[in-house]
Amino acid sequence: DIQMTQSPSSLSASIGDRVTITCRTSQSINNNLNWYQQKPGKAPQLLIYDTSILQSGVPSRFSGGGSGTGFTLTISTLQPEDFATYYCQQSYTMFRTFGQGTKVEIK
Amino acid sequence: QLQLQESGSRLVKPSQTLSLTCTVSGGSISGGAYSCSWIRQPPGRGLEYIGFVSPGGSTYYSPSLKSRVAMSVDTSKNHFSLKLTSVTAADTAVYYCASQRGGAFHHWGRGTLVTVSS
Questions:
Q1: Would you state the pLDDT for residue B47?
Q2: Mean pLDDT of A40-56
Q3: Which of B2, B47, B52, B66 to mutate to test the interface with A (most CBs of A within 10 A)?
Q4: In DSSP terms, which residues pair with B19 in a beta bridge?
Q5: Rg of chain B, C-alpha, whole Å
Q6: Residue B106 has what pLDDT?
Q7: Interchain contact, A98 vs B60, CB within 8 Å
Q8: What DSSP letter does each residue of chain A carry, written as one string?
């Protein structure tokens, strides 16, 4: 299995802040990395796929980068609706695995 | 826009079989544009991939669950199904169906909480 490690597990930030979440994998996955946002009581929503491609309808303040074993999700200017839990997910192997999640809270 | 909706048993007794169906609207499974996946989330915890079934019926299951899981697809009804046998309390979770394209889960159902309890 490919292990996924997100950091931090949680963070507190203010409206307007720049936020970066990191996802590291136990082996190289090329660019096969996807990011999701989940709000309480709701299903996850795809934000970014293949490391850096923005899903249709996702605001441009979200961006993704990285390659190999290290990846980032950046929110350039945090908005009230961005407070949520974010998950990374690898699609390099048939056995898809997720990171443990990063909860973004209001400072 | 593709929409998915889970349905099925919400309360399952230990050792029995969990059965869920995912009905797809806004697009045809038989079109082959995506595979039909299941993902679960125990209360207060993270996401766990269960597996997928392709429009043609090919399957892939999580190694940790493969001895208990079966997935199928019915293209005439535009739905796909999950069965999980010999359930225990550890299988209590919100179960999501999702469309999988290129390895990413593009559309999700709302999820259904399945509780395993006597």
A1: 98
A2: 98
A3: B47
A4: B83
A5: 13
A6: 97
A7: no
A8: ---EEEE-SEEEE-TT--EEEEEEESS--TT-EEEEEE-TTS--EEEEETTTEEPTT--TTEEEEEETTEEEEEESS--GGG-SEEEEEE-SSSS-EE---EEEEE-
